[in-house]
Each structure stands twice: as structure tokens, then as C-alpha cells.
Amino acid sequence: MPSIRKILIFILALHCHWWLLVRSFFSRSALLEAFACFGIISTTAGASFSSLYLTKAPSHGDVRVSANPSPPCLQGKKLEPLLVSPVIILFYFCILSHGICRQDPVSTPDHQISVKVVHCCPTMASTRVAVVTGGNKGIGLAIVRALCKQFKGDVYLTARDPKLGEASVKKLQEEEGLTSHFHQLDITDLQSIRALRDFMKKEYGGIDVLINNAGIAFKVADTTPFHIQAEVTIKTNFFATRDVCTEFLPLIKPHGRVVNVSSMSSQHALAKCSKDLQNKFRSDTITEDELVALMEKFVEDTKKGIHSQEGWPNTAYGVSKIGVTVLSMIQGRRLSKERGADGILLNACCPGWVRTDMAGDKATKSPDEGAETPVYLALLPSDAEAPQGQFVSEKKVGKWWLSCGWKKFYNDEHDVCVFCLPDAYSIKNECLHLRAEVGVGMEHWPL
């Protein structure tokens, strides 16, 4: 019938016109306009859907137009134009609602229409995420608790033992109504680190906040040979933390925050190092490789029994935290140089003397109080430019190394040794009393 023939010619003309429009639109990178054009034309001639459909090229993940006569799923089936067209429009609105992350040019075979790769973000990619290592107890759990209250996004509590980690997540939910998530992480296991890395990359597209809190310390009364204590402590506190940073720093999103939990013990350990070692650690030009070599030398010197002669202090924990602090300074400088435009801030901090399994119940701070400085650094405003690569204590940046004028007090009652500023004058009931307007620097040294 002539009327049917005219309609078919009209549809064919629209089909060719649409193909030319898409080709020109894509060449000008007007992807959204091409989608709109396709929706309008399809509304006018919905029957053309039988000769136009989208295929996904498995090799590149790109979306391209195919001009096959009819998709197999529609062959032999009658479709009403008024029904098909709204379906097409709805399909494209769904694509647009997920957002387009980026568009990369892709070369395709000559017989296909060259378009741009459209990488659609996963639903959770727009959700901010924070990760806390060693988060199932002590300061780590307190950090998770604070982030659940203050951080706008998902908070992941990580721990070596899934049972302990999941129990902590459950406890936060049942007792405090706080929602957190758990993912297993053993920072001494590179495979475990990479499993978490891949998970964060897949589910969130990166990380917004990373707090490296996990660490260990041998008890003072522990009879394990010192060289073994040194090897285990340096491996966990320094090298494992470095591994986490190596794998995760590339995933830190713009305006992200990284906090490496160190300790005031690093200051005291540095003060006990030889002048030569002090100069090396304080250098603004020390490299990561040089720092690694120094940490390895400490371990080797303890095995040989010559660490004291080589200028090292008799504290494996203190030396490990020297490594964490200096590593943070190196990483901060590197981020400023390599990703300065991204506004990422990385710092080390001292939580203070906190009542934990590690520090004991005589400490002056609760875990929640100890979490204040790490959380402060993790939640610095997105437009903040500092601090970067600094050692922060009590939410303030200070000189990392101790001045020669620091005093040492010994408390017989509690068997602790406290280093403090020159203006300190007494210790009473585990508290350090200072004259007004004088800052506090304090750490306990069980003897």
C-alpha cells in the first residue's frame, strides 16, 4: 500500500539522518546532545528501533552504534512505536542518571563507528569512604567511633582477626547506634593489603581518608631477646605501615587525608640517638630508600649486639616510630610535589599517653581523647593547605625533635619516667603540672 511504503521510506530516511547526526555529534564530543537527538527521533519513528540497537564491545568497554537489520531478540515480533519509544527514552535517562565519569578516545576497526569510551561510575563511587587500620580496639576503635559520628561517608574498621573486627562493628551498632563496616586487614601480609586495596578501588573508586593506626609494642617485662623484639617491631610498625601507604596512596582521592599514628616516643628515641643519626633523620632531603636503609641497619645492629655502639637507643618501639614520623615527612613532601593540585594532606601524629592494652591503665588519656588529634587531621577542611608532612600533637604542629633543655622527672610511686618542657616543675598523681601558657610534651617510660 502506498501509505505503508511512504512510512517505510520516512523511517529509512530518519534512520540515515540519525546515523549522520550521531557521527557528527560524537566527532564534536557532544555525547549528551547525541543521546537527546536519538530520543527525539525515536519518539517520532519508534519502529526504527528494530534496525537500531546498542552493542557493547567486550574488548574496549565502549558503546557504539550498530546498523544491523534487526536485533535477534526482536526478529519476528511486532512492536508498537508508541510503546518502544518511551522504553528507549527511559533507557537513556537511566544511563544519564548514573553519570558519566570520564570519556577516553578509542580506536576502533574501520567498519565501525568510532566513539568515546564511556566509563560509568559504580553506584558507590560517589560515596566517601574512610579506612582505619587496627580498628577493633583501643585508639583505633575510638577513631572509628568518632568518624562514624563526624565523617560523611562509609567508615571501615579493619583488623587481622575477622571475629574481633566484626564483633567491634556489631558492638558499635548495638550499643551506640553507629554504623561502620568491616574488612579484614593484616598489615604484615601484602596479599591482605592488596585485597583491601582492590576492594576499595572496585567499590569506591578510591579512598578519601586513611588512618594508619595498627602497630605493636612489647611489654617492658617481656623477656623476648631484644634483637627479636627489634625485628618484629620494625617489621610491623614501620615496614608494614610503609607497605599500606605504597599500595593505598595512589588510591587517595583529591582532597584526601592520610594520618600515620606515631608517638612521642619517636622524639625521645631520637634524642637518645647519636648526633650523626639525629642529623640523618632530621634532614629535609632524606629519601625513602635512605630511611629504609637506616631501619634495616638498626635491626641488623641489634642482631650483632652492637646497636648501642652504633648510636641507637635501646628502644625498638621508639625507633620504629622514628621511622613512621620521618616516612610521613617524606611522603608529605612527595605528595606536594607530585599531586600538589589534588590537595592531599598526609601527616604523622601523637595521640598522647592513652589507656590501652599497649600503654596500660595508668595513662592519662581515654581512648576517645587519644583519637582527637588523628580525627582532627582526618577531617581537615577540603580547602586546607596545611599541615603537610608534619608531626602533630594535641592538634598542633611542633618541632619533632626535643630541645636539649628538656627535663626528666622520675615518679617513684608509679615507676615512670617523664620527659617534659623546661618549665615543668613537678609530677603528682600521674599528671604533669606546668606553669601557665606553657605547652605540654609528655610520654611515659616504664622502667
UniProtKB/TrEMBL annotation:
InterPro entries (UniProt xref): CBR1-like, NAD(P)-bd_dom_sf, Sc_DH/Rdtase_CS, SDR_fam
Any single Pfam family the record assigns to this protein: adh_short
Tagged with keyword Oxidoreductase: yes
EC code(s) of this entry: 1.1.1.184
First-tier enzyme category under EC: oxidoreductase
One annotated GO molecular function: carbonyl reductase (NADPH) activity
Transmembrane feature ranges: 7-26
Secretion signal, residue range per the UniProt entry: none
Gene Ontology, cellular component aspect: cytoplasm
Matches recorded under SUPFAM superfamilies: NAD(P)-binding Rossmann-fold domains
Highest taxon in the source lineage: Eukaryota
UniProt entry keywords in alphabetical sequence: Cytoplasm, Membrane, NADP, Oxidoreductase, Phosphoprotein, Transmembrane, Transmembrane helix
Predominant place of localization: cytoplasm
Location of this chain's protein in the cell: Cytoplasm
Keyword Phosphoprotein: yes
Family that this chain belongs to: Belongs to the short-chain dehydrogenases/reductases (SDR) family.
Protein name as it appears in the record: carbonyl reductase (NADPH)
